[in-house]
Specification:
Elements lengths: L41 E11 L4 H11 L6 E4 L3 H12 L3 E8 L9 E10 L2 E8 L3 H10 L10 H17 L6 E8 L5 E9 L5 E8 L6 H7 L19 H17 L6 E10 L3 E9 L5 E8 L6 H8 L9 H9 L7 H6 L7 E9 L3 E9 L5 E8 L6 H5 L12 H14 L4 H5 L3 E5 L4 E7 L7 E9 L2 E13 L19 E9 L4 E10 L9 E11 L7 E2 L5 E2 L4 E14 L7 E15 L9 E15 L10 E11 L8 E13 L7 E12 L10 E4 L13 E4 L18
Parallel strand pairs: 1-4, 5-7, 8-10, 11-13, 14-16, 30-31
Antiparallel strand pairs: 1-2, 3-4, 6-7, 9-10, 12-13, 15-16, 17-18, 18-19, 19-20, 20-21, 21-24, 22-23, 24-25, 25-26, 26-27, 27-28, 28-29
């Protein structure tokens, strides 16, 4: 930047503006003391102010306005603050590469007035920019990072920022030694410039070794394992390149300190760390730690608590005298843990919204620490207005009946969590939007917390159209499941979207056929809240028909034998059920009761496990279940346990049996975000006789998956086992279908 100025002469005259060639003279905006014999700073009046270097009058007016100088203004020359500030303001506008303020030759008056000239050199505008040495994928990413805009002036600082953005991008990709050179190419008009960024990425630098010094309690391998995002390159980890990322590396160093804190090393710090490239593409990281002393908890003191005694709070904190100090465990058990058994939850679940706990860790003699907690309990708050938003299809009462947060009830953080879990179980709304929880606002005067559940509707209806061809020919299937149906709006066509929805009812219809030889139809309906109570009731009806021609004219006999005598099997099933939520042992338990009636017609004994002709079955089923899963479709944590017993009494010629079923499933998250979880499930079945006669119908089949059953599973109940074919694990003397 060129800043030129002149000294004020006597008698209203001035030295020629070529003072830039006279190094002994001080600029108008300077601040240094005048040399011997030079004129001392004195106030003068600006009689005239001109702008030179740009043609457009609007831009000249802009420069005058930005400078802050006006005609008639008094300034101090030389070394006046106003002149220096004017130069800085014009240059900071980003439109000019050079700015100078000079006193015009021959200007001024005898009473001390001056004429000033603002001389500017405009920055060239950007005509465009391009890359050399950059592939297409990288080019797209770089264009998003570079903030240069066509038509706007290009300053050296803008180019420097662009180069830094390019280097930062390649550094994140592991090219720590990337070099960027920018070439300016003026256009023919001279008022614009094209930029060419020549990029040499160099070699990809990978982490070769991470070395620690000063560590005695833990070896290098333990500390390396703590660093989640900075790992050494190993030949067996061929699928991943261990590139170096500076920001992630800094975060990993913090994890090392946290690791020490979790094992009682309260004073542990990173003394120094150094990274350098060795051999051209191998990065070495050297980290020096100071472990300090491993501390143990001596005393735990609570101050300000009136709601809970010390013993209850200490038990929730999870520390006892003599325990190794653990910063992470302390914060979790104080602020909030996954089981909601922490100290803060104790208060928040009883309405103490403003509860605060301030921990003070005080060193004690030797290797001990005293934990002192200053508590501010505050007052009890209640739930205020509960607002439902975003439910474009689901009716508001369907949402509200799942909420534990009721206006006027005592505030409880656990009630909010359980409300979110209940809404997730519905499957009507985006799981991501629900995880954020409701927004809150606080009414300090009334001590109320207002909640707004911001929902985002998603469709969980199911439509299946499928066809399979195999040993039994072509089988076609279509099924519809509407999980948010509304029978109340069945005849209100204005509510159809495209079918009546919003009341949370479930309607399913399924048709499966292979022509006249195989047909299967089913219809079911469920009302989840019967008579305004959380008591699901529903029913279903189904019909199935299968002939021996479906099996190539064979008649299926026990033990796998068959003959070619024609036969037809038909079944009609009706079912009614009722479920009820329980409050004990907790509200995740439910009790179910089901009545089943089955009519069978087995012409010519197609199914060997049933006698020829007509058969009837009436059964009663009682079930007890507990479901604490966080998501009905893709659970990441929680469990589901089902226990049921079904009894078909031996009345008259009715089919008799008693059947027991016990199913469990556990989900344990393997990552903190819950995107990866471990699932373990078990399934047990037992069937017995009430009369001592052999039970040949309604038995179990072990093996296969849900996709293997359905075409011919009459009179059997599958227990799935992935990896084994259907019926692969049945006893040698098993019954038929």
């Amino acid at each position: 930047m060129l800043i030129a100025a002149v000294l004020v002469g006597t008698g209203g005259t001035s030295v020629a503006p070529a003072l830039a060639q006279q190094p002994q003279q001080q600029p108008l905006g300077g601040t240094q003391a005048p040399a011997a014999g030079a004129q001392r700073p004195a106030p003068v009046t600006i009689e005239r102010l001109r702008v030179e270097g740009i043609d457009r009058q609007s831009m000249r007016d802009f420069v005058r306005r930005v400078s802050g100088l006006t005609e008639g203004q008094q300034v101090t020359l030389p070394g006046g603050e106003a002149i220096g500030e004017a130069i800085r303001s014009i240059y900071d506008s980003g439109l000019f590469s050079d700015v100078a303020i000079v006193e015009e030759e021959g200007g001024g008056s005898a009473d001390g007035g001056v004429q000033l000239l603002i001389r500017v050199t405009p920055e060239p505008g950007l005509a465009g920019y391009s890359f050399k040495g950059v592939d297409d994928n990288a080019r797209d990413d770089l264009e998003e990072r570079i903030t240069l805009a066509e038509g706007r002036p290009v300053r050296p600082s803008d180019i420097q920022r662009a180069e830094q953005a390019i280097k930062a991008f390649y550094s994140e990709e592991g090219y720590l030694l990337a070099d960027v050179e920018t070439r300016r190419r003026p256009t023919a008009s001279g008022d614009q410039v094209n930029l060419l960024f020549e990029v040499d990425p160099g070699k990809k630098v990978e982490v070769e070794d991470i070395r620690f010094a000063g560590n005695e309690a833990f070896d290098d391998g333990d500390l390396r394992d703590v660093m989640e995002d900075t790992r050494e390159d190993r030949w067996w980890r061929f699928w991943k390149s261990e590139k170096f990322d500076r920001e992630k590396y800094e975060s990993d160093l913090d994890r090392v300190v946290d690791f020490y804190n979790e094992h009682g090393y309260y004073d542990a710090t990173i003394v120094s760390d150094t990274t350098y490239v060795e051999g051209g593409d191998d990065l070495i990281a050297e980290v020096t730690v100071r472990e300090g002393t491993q501390y143990y908890v001596r005393n735990i003191e609570w101050r300000g608590n009136t709601v809970y005694p010390d013993a209850v709070l200490t038990r929730a904190l999870g520390f006892e005298q003599g325990d190794v100090y653990n910063t992470k465990r302390l914060q979790k058990n104080l602020r909030g843990n996954r089981s909601s058994s922490d100290v803060t939850s104790l208060y928040m679940d009883r309405g103490y919204v403003r509860f605060r706990a301030q921990p003070n860790v005080q060193p004690a003699p030797g290797d001990s620490l005293d934990l002192v907690f200053d508590l501010t309990e505050g007052e009890v708050w209640e739930f205020g207005d509960i607002t439902i938003a975003g439910n474009t299809k689901t009716k508001e009462h369907v949402v509200r009946r799942e909420l534990y947060t009721v206006p006027g009830s005592k505030f409880s953080r656990s009630d909010i969590r359980e409300s979110i879990r209940r809404l997730q179980q519905l499957g009507y709304f985006s799981q991501e939007s629900l995880k954020q929880g409701p927004s809150t606002s606080f009414d300090q005067q009334n001590k109320e917390v207002d909640l707004t559940y911001q929902l985002k509707e998603v469709s969980n209806d199911q439509l299946e159209l499928s066809g399979t061809y195999g040993g039994y020919g072509l089988v076609l299937q279509t099924s519809f499941t509407f999980n948010n149906f509304s029978a109340q709006n069945l005849f209100d066509f204005d509510e159809w979207q495209p079918l009546p929805v919003g009341d949370g009812q479930k309607l399913s219809l399924s048709v499966r056929t292979a022509g006249f030889d195989y047909q299967r139809y089913s219809l079911s309906f469920t009302e989840p809240w019967f008579r305004g109570r959380p008591t699901p009731v529903g029913g279903s009806v189904s019909y199935a028909r299968i002939s021996s021609d479906y099996y190539g004219g064979r008649r299926i006999r026990r033990g796998g034998a068959s003959d070619t005598e024609a036969g037809v099997f038909q079944r009609v099933t009706t079912q009614f059920f009722r479920r009820q939520r329980l409050d004990w042992p907790d509200d995740k338990f439910s009790l179910s009761s089901t009545v089943n009636y089955n009519y069978y017609r087995n012409d010519n004994g197609l199914y060997g496990s049933l006698p020829p002709g007509e058969s009837h079955q009436l059964s009663f089923k009682q079930g007890l279940s507990r479901n604490s899963r966080d998501n009905p479709l893709f659970p990441s944590r929680g469990s589901k346990v089902d226990l049921s017993v079904e009894v078909a009494p031996p009345v008259g010629d009715l089919i008799q049996f008693h059947k027991w079923r016990f199913k469990t499933g556990w989900n344990v998250p393997l990552t903190s975000n819950g995107k990866l979880s471990f699932n373990v499930s078990t399934d047990y079945g037992y069937i017995g006789s009430l009369t001592g006669e052999e039970v040949a119908f309604q038995t179990f089949d072990l093996g296969g998956t849900a996709f293997d059953y359905g075409r011919y599973s009459f009179g059997t109940e599958p227990i799935y086992m992935r990896g084994y074919p259907q019926r692969a694990l049945n006893p040698l003397r098993g019954t038929d279908f």
